[in-house]
Each structure stands twice: as structure tokens, then as C-alpha cells.
Amino acid sequence: MADVIQLLPEYLANQIAAGEVVQRPASVVKELLENAVDAGATQVQLIVKDAGKQLVQIVDNGTGMSPTDARMSLERHATSKIRSTEDLFRIRTLGFRGEALASIAAVAQVELRTKKRDQDTGTLLLIEGSQVTSQQPVACPDGTSIAVKNLFFNVPARRNFLKTNAVEMRHILDEFQHVALANPQITFSLYQNDLEVFNLPAGKLSQRIVALLGNGYKEQLAACEEVTPFITVKGFIGKPESAKKSRGDQFFFVNNRFIRSAYLNHAVLAAYEGLLPRDTFPFYVLFLELDPKAIDINVHPTKTEIKFEDEKTVYAIVRAAVKQSLGIHNMAPSLDFEGDVNFAPIQPLRSSPGGNSFADDFRPDALASAAARAASPKGQAGQHPRSPAAGTAPARPTEQAKRDLEEFYRSLGQTVVPDLPAAAPQIPDFGPDQHSAPPVSAILAAPELPLREASSGPGSRVIQVNQQYLLVPVKSGVMLIDQVAARERILYEQYALGLERESAGSQTLLFPRTVTFTPQDFAILREVSDDLHALGFRFAEFGPNTIAVEGLPADVPNRDEKELLEGLIEQFRTHAGPVRLDRREKVARALARRVAGSSDNARLSDKEMAALVDRLFACAVPSYTPDGRRTLVLLELSQLQDFFRKP
After folding, report:
1. Taking every annotated instance into account, which residue ranges of this chain make up the domain MutL C-terminal dimerisation (predicted)?
2. Rounded distance between C-alpha atoms, residue 304 and residue 203, angstroms
């Protein structure tokens, strides 16, 4: 029987290796930028044409290469970074595998010019599909220039899998951003189709952050530093008020190498616990320095995943460093032991001008009476069994007194129900330890959800629960509707129809408003601009990474356009689903979720609740959101009866 195992030709082996290292133009940018940094360059220029498909060129003023080294650099597993197995555990350079240039040369046309400082002439190499077609001396400046042209010219199937120019350019900007942030001491510039996108002079890390991510961070940076014998943590974190709906501006560097780590990200979020608004994420650029022997970076060809020898200790130190920085910069809550600010709520709780008894302020009936008065729109007492007689005229509490009273209720674990109507139904007396409306646990066995009737008038059927859910009686029992999820389903079907017809309504702003984005977000915005126009957004480019917003979709509340578009871009970027979605589907889903989320915890009128229920059941798929979350739950009558049976 003939032998069947054969040694692959070198060009084919290189193409297979290139499949791991060179996945898209951004992979070329990453490898070449890291080589320039390893070569000791102080000035690095990146030139991109056609989102890297036509040209990716890196020009640096590093050490350069001799003619022999230039030729050897194109061979597989040829490197100047390591010599032995022990060197793998002492790696300080960004590259060490010796595969990048060989892999790039296997799938592109490469022009390499390089010159060492102590030599009179440089070397010009022309490579095409792993084959060196020309090598000759040439006059060139010190350093190295590598031009990668027509990527995947000999692998058309791989080229067909590349995304649109906007998507590929976004990935290139990400890689450029990582290397530029890690090396603020180096001057970087980026040109896209002969237009300058970035010109970053050498300077401090804080200056580099502002130059890359925008002036919005200028006043929001807080230094973070923790030095231990095991690890050093340095960098900057963002103040809690600068937190965004997007996760994009979060960077970890280990020994100056950008990494991705959900574990360390959790450590940072744990330090911010209790300080961030809901569904927001903090900014951070953190550098971890530790002995190379304590980490393993030889995990994946992209080298963005590493393993720590003692990851629990790293987690604890990162969390402590961030928490300490928040405390030093007075961003974490603290107690003031000198002033009486913590005891201010005591004063306004007296039930009447004549009330001078300290004990009376904390009697349950006094608290309930104060709550009824504070909730009354006209400052009058509500109809509570223990309210003062109608003939008395209690003083109307100030707005501060109302807030203090509500805060006091919350500290006792009680429910605060603001803005009850003047003719609110009577609140039954459930004893001295309960001063709010009865919990819905009597009906749904969910004590954490307070109940608010939708209307005090007769015949009311829809009930709003905790300003989040709608309780709708039906023949077979009761139906509980998540009002945010329901609105998301309604809006999604509306937007999908608008995209199909390309004729969505738009509300014109009185004055156009300019919005500036990061280059990464602006690249995504360009990618989906046609679909956003079809949804009703009206905007035009207004300078570098800036648009002038002239109109919004008809159903979108008139709010901060920057926050709305940034949130939409983030959801479009990170949306994950079980199936591959086309671009329009992702845009419709992202906008529906973003706009629906703006109505979270919204108080609805009778008509609004009725309209929401009607529009939900007019949808093609009323029971689920576009990504499969439930919009409603049906509780059968038998289930309700089970709640009241004896155990």
C-alpha cells in the first residue's frame, strides 16, 4: 500500500499559518506596529488605504535590519527575541513567535525597506506569496518601512470573507489605539486614504488618553497606583459620573501588552460597586507589571489572552487599587463625623407646626400622616384612617422635607409611593409596622414588588406594579406584562417595518446639534448611516468624527443625542444572538432596546397602559422580545388559589 502522508510545500504551510495570525487587515496592523515598538522606534507612522485591503504601511525610525536579517525575517520561526526554552518565561517584547512577517508575506505583496543607523545604504526586498522576487541595496532613511499591498490576493476565498470598509477600519483603529495607549512615549500618526486621522505627539499617558479618546475625559481621569512586591498596578480610572452605556473604553495591559480579561474586568466593577448608575460601565486604562515567569502569554497566536500563575492575588490587588483610588479622589461614599448632615432628615418629620415632641415624630401614625401630606399634590392630607381631621390645616412640607421623608422610609425598608392622587383610595391599616400600600405578595407571592393602582376610578382593570409591570386581569387568571420588554417588541416591529418601507417618520430638531464620536464609534456610525436614515435619523458629517443631528425618529424621546447614538452603536457592536443577523435586523433590535430602556420605571396613565397592552397584542409575536426575553407571564387562577392554601 502506497504511503499517504506527505510534507506540505512551504508556500502552503505558510498560508495555513497565516490563517491563524492574519485574519484581517487589522491583524497586519497589530503585528507590524508591535514590531516597530520592539525595534525601539520613537516615531511610527501608519498609512492605510481601502481599509487595509489595498495598502497597510508602517514606517518607523527603529534600529533597522542588515541585508541578511531582512531576508531572514521573512522565514518561519525566525526571530531575534528568544534563543532557548528559558527565554519563553522571560519575554518582555511584544513579538517572539517569528511567524508574523512570514505569514503576512504568504498572503500579500510586500515591499520591505530597511537600514541600520551605522550603514550607508539600506535594503529593498520585494516579496509576493512567500517568494522573494527582488533584493537590492537602496537609499532610505534609518529604520524600517513595510508596505503590505493587496492582502489575500492569492487567497480569494479569504478576501471575500472580509467585511465592509467601515467594519475593517474599526478593527484597525482598535489595534492602533491599543499600541498607542501602551506607548505614550512614542509619536504615532495614522493616515486613512491620505487623510490624517491621528497625530499623537509623545507625552504623558493622560495626554495620550485625551488625544485618543476625546476631550470629554480631560476632567474625568483619576490616577490609580498600587505597588506590591508581587505586582504593580498603574494607570487611570474614570470618575463614576463619566460611566457610559458602552463597554468600549476599558483597557488592560500586562507588561505593556494589551490583553482581554473578563476576570480582571470583574475586579474593577467590584471596586465600583454601588457607585455606578444602572447598566453603565466605568472607563479605565490600567497597566499591570509583574515577573514574566508569573504569566504565560504563549496561549494564542494573537497574544491577547494570558494565564496568571496566581490570578486570585492579581484580582484582589487590582480591586484594592481601584477602590483606593476612588477613596483618595473622594468618589466613594464616606461618613462626615463633624457635621450634622447625616441627621438632617430628623427635623422636617414633625406632623404639625405645633408638634414639639421628639417621640411624636417617630410614631407610626405620625409618619403615615406625614407621608399622606407629602404625597398630596396640594399639600392636603390624604384619606388615611390615622390622618388628622379635615378641619386641621397641617403645614405643607417643603420639597426637601419630602425627599428627607422618602429617604427615611427607604432606610426602614418601606415602599415610597410618590404623587398619589388627592382622591386616593383609603389605605387599609395593617398595623403599626406597615405604613405603605399592601405588597403584591398577597396576590403574586412577590413581596419585593409594591402595588400601585392605575386609576382610582371605578371599573379600572389595569394595575401598575413598581412602575415596571402591568397587572391585567384575564378570564383564566392574571397576566403580568414587563412594560419595557413590551415596548421593545412594539418598537422593534415598528422599526423593522420602517426599514422595509424606508419611509419612517422623523421629528426635526429646532436647531441642529453637533455630536463628536471616537474614531471607532464614528466608523460604526458610517457603516449603519443608511439604515439610521431609514429609521428616521437625520444627520450629516460636520468635521472630523463629528455629525450635525437635524432630526430623530418620531417615537424617540427628545434627549441627549450623543448618549442615544453611543448606546445604539454599543448595542449594535456587542449584540450577540444564536443566529447570524443582517445589519438592518441588528440596527432595528439595537434601537428598539435603547429607546424602550429610556422608559424604564416610567409612571403610565390609564390611557398609556391601555394603549401599551393593545399595541403589544397587535404585534406579530407579542410574547417575546426580538432576542427571546419574555414580555408577559400568565398566572392561572389555580396558581393564585395555591398561594392562599394552607401549607
Report:
1. 462-604
2. 25
Tell me the CA end-to-end span of the chain in Å, nearest whole number.
77
Kindly state the cell numbers that stand for 20.
Answer: 491563524
Nearest to 326 by CA among 240, 403, 421: 240
pLDDT in tens, 373-387: 444 444 443 344 334
**Pairing relationship of beta strands 250-254 and 284-290 according to DSSP bridges:** parallel
Q: What is the pLDDT of residue 113?
A: 95
Compute the half-sphere exposure of residue 423: CA atoms within 13 Å on the CB side of its CA.
4
- Angle of helix 25-38 relative to helix 165-182, nearest 10 degrees, comes to 20
Q: Helix axis angle, 483-501 relative to 606-617, nearest 10°?
A: 60
- Say if CB 260 and CB 300 are below 8 A apart: no
Across the range 338-358, mean pLDDT stands at 40
Tell me the helices (H) and strands (E) count for the chain, helix number first: 18, 23
Q: How many residues make up the chain in this entry?
A: 647
- Assign 594 to helix, strand or coil: helix
Among 9-23, 343-357, 464-478, the range with the most confident prediction by mean pLDDT is 464-478
Contact (CB, 8 A) for 236 and 206: yes
Q: Grid coordinates in use for 360?
A: 411624636
Burial of 582 per CB tally in 10 Å (0-12, 13-18, 19+): exposed
Least confident range of 103-107, 229-233, 238-242, 387-391? 387-391
Name residue 504's amino acid: A
Q: Can you tell me the distance from the alpha carbon of 32 to that of 144, in angstroms, rounded to the nearest whole number?
A: 10
User: Which residues, 6 or more positions from 576, have their beta carbon under 8 angstroms from its beta carbon?
Assistant: none
d(CA 482, CA 467): 10
To which H or E segment does residue 329 belong? none
Give the torsion sign (CA, 323, 329, 331, 334): positive
Strand spans (E) along 280-326: 284-290, 295-296, 307-308
Burial environment of residue 606 by CB neighbours within 10 A (0 to 12, 13 to 18, 19 or more): middle
